[in-house]
Specification:
The structure holds two protein chains of two kinds. Helix content of chain A is 38%, strand content 14%. In chain A, helix 2 links the parallel strand 1 and strand 2. Chain A contains eleven helices and nine strands. Chain A has two domains: 140 residues, 3-Layer(aba) Sandwich (Rossmann fold), CATH 3.40.50; 151 residues, Aspartate/ornithine carbamoyltransferase (Rossmann fold, 3-Layer(aba) Sandwich), CATH 3.40.50.1370. Chain A is α/β, with parallel strands linked by helices. Chain B is of the alpha/beta class. In chain B, strand 4, helix 3 and strand 5 form a beta-alpha-beta unit. Chain B contains four helices and eight strands, in the order βαβαββαβββαβ. Chain B has one domain: 3-Layer(aba) Sandwich (Rossmann fold), CATH 3.40.50. A five-stranded parallel β-sheet of chain B has the order 3-2-4-5-6, sandwiched between helices. Chain B has a three-stranded antiparallel β-sheet with strand order 1-8-7. Classes of the chains: A alpha/beta, B alpha/beta.
Chain lengths: 312, 180
């Protein structure tokens, strides 16, 4: 297969296994390219991409921007803090205005779940979801699975536990879809108040105790506690969370095997992970960042392939 | 109906590869600053074959690489079917080197143009030469001419030149396909 089955990247839910493998194989090539002396290819030189960030982001935005630049696309950046959204403009109006400037692709991050789906139905451009509220964050899941594949050779058959605030996490949901499609076993671990009630219906195990979860898994994907999404108190204090669910060297050395630690960033050092774990050889957090650029190049390249040249 | 015609037989194939290797030795001496780079996927096969011949002729330490040009092509979004990218394997700098780009068939010259573009991402070479097994004359879209040619053939656009390799198709030979 050399072409994606989906027209946009709205979520992992809409991709099939072959799509994911195609993205991985394409990312392999781009990873080579971003390690060349000149890290740029001319593929997207006649494509304009708008990065619409209605929510704060550093890593994802930089990663997308770098991916776009390395594919030679033209870029317009937009962030809601410095725009007319503050003046009361609706999402569709903002986007239509940007599209009137002849944009071919839109990378969107938005606090509302489904914002990217809404766009894909209403505007004529390829949409890439860079995180929509608590719904999905597909490129993060792809780069996480890609990093596991890089470390272990394949994702199939591996046991992955996602630790932390599962309920408010789009990274968790996208990861669950992605890892399951690739044939791995997924479990979640965290305070019961932050585990969604329907988690069983996704075929995901719930392990209460951190030590049990770490003993079970090959890879632990540790999430950040997102205080900004919690309007009520879900656990007593950060300090207590760190004591019960925080991973430190001691916890890791009590395990019978060496597991891999992942984190989508930004890390709260001393809360979900201690500094000695973050900086240890078991953590592949910086590999995830590097792979993020390659994965996003692959996604943009494969979607751009579907934008037909005028008159053809 | 497709009509097949063998334009290079097995025996002639081996003589041509032998000749191309000797032409390289004549121009590049001990290959001190020379690098052979095959264009993916099929140029790599010719590159490997030439290397084999040169190794027999005591040139054992020649650097070779393979170059994928998928992301440098000028027909992205213009083709009916997308192309699958292959591996790029150039683990050295080409700065100041004499490069011999190798491909199986030279037709419009677009692949070679893309290859030169891709090559420059690895540094500034001293010179770039082009070696092809088959030169389909009279069909160029770019002002590109090879330095080393196995065989020149005159073809029309409805015809297709297929190079077959012992490793993949049992037999070394070149076939001209005509669709009627």
């Amino acid at each position: 297969m050399t072409r994606l089955s989906a027209e946009h990247l709205l979520g992992i839910k809409h991709l099939n296994k072959d799509d994911i493998f195609l993205i991985f194989n394409t990312a392999d090539n781009f990873k080579k390219i971003i390690n060349q002396p000149i890290k740029k290819v001319p593929s997207l030189r006649d494509i304009t991409v708008a990065n619409l960030f209605f929510e704060n982001s550093t890593r994802t935005r930089l990663s997308f921007e770098l991916a776009e630049k390395r594919l030679s696309a033209d870029i317009v950046n937009f962030s809601s803090s410095s725009s007319s959204v503050k003046k009361g403009e609706t999402l569709i109006d903002t986007v239509n205005n940007i599209l009137a400037m002849k944009v071919d692709m839109v990378v969107i991050r938005h606090p509302n779940p489904g914002a990217s789906v809404f766009l894909s139905r209403n505007v004529n451009a390829k949409i890439v979801n860079a995180g929509d509220g608590t719904h999905e964050h597909p490129t993060q899941a792809l780069l996480d699975a890609y990093s596991i594949r890089e470390k272990y050779g394949e994702v199939k058959g591996k046991k992955i536990v996602i630790i932390g605030d599962i309920m408010h996490s789009r990274v968790a949901l996208s990861n669950i879809y992605c890892l399951q499609k690739l044939g791995s076993e997924v479990a979640v671990c965290g305070p019961s108040t932050l585990i969604p009630r329907y988690i069983d219906s996704l075929g995901v195990k719930h392990i209460n105790n951190l030590q049990d979860a770490l003993n079970w898994c090959d890879v632990a994907n540790v999430l950040r506690i997102q205080l900004e999404r919690q309007d009520i108190i879900f656990f007593p204090s950060l300090r207590e969370y760190a004591m019960v669910f925080g991973i430190n060297k001691e916890v890791l050395s009590n395990l019978s095997k060496e597991i891999t630690i992942m984190h989508p960033g930004p890390i709260n050092r001393g809360v979900e992970l201690t500094s000695d774990v973050v900086d240890s050889g078991q953590a592949i957090i910086l590999d995830q960042v590097e792979n993020g650029v390659a994965i996003r190049m692959a996604v943009l390249y494969l979607l751009a392939e579907k934008i037909k040249k005028d008159g053809k | 109906m497709k009509e097949e015609k063998v334009i290079i037989s097995k025996d002639k194939f081996s003589i041509i590869v032998e000749r191309l290797s000797h032409q390289l030795i004549e121009n590049h001496g001990d290959f001190e600053d020379t690098v052979l780079i095959g264009i993916q996927p099929r140029g790599v096969r010719l590159c490997d074959r030439i290397l084999k011949k040169l190794s027999i002729n005591r040139f054992k330490r020649i650097k070779i690489g393979s170059l994928d040009i998928t992301f440098y092509r000028d027909d992205f979004r213009r083709r009916k079917e997308p192309i699958e990218a292959q591996i790029i394997d150039i683990d050295f700098s080409i700065e100041g080197k004499n490069i011999v780009l190798i491909d199986d068939v030279l037709y419009t010259g677009r692949s070679v143009r893309a290859a030169m573009d891709a090559l420059l991402a690895f540094g500034r070479p001293k010179s770039v030469e082009l070696m092809v097994l088959i030169d389909r004359r009279l069909s160029r879209h770019f002002p590109i001419q090879p330095n080393y040619v196995g065989e020149k053939v005159d073809t029309i656009s409805s015809e297709k030149v297929v190079v077959e390799w012992e490793e993949f198709n049992d037999k070394d030979q070149v076939i001209l396909l005509r669709s009627e």
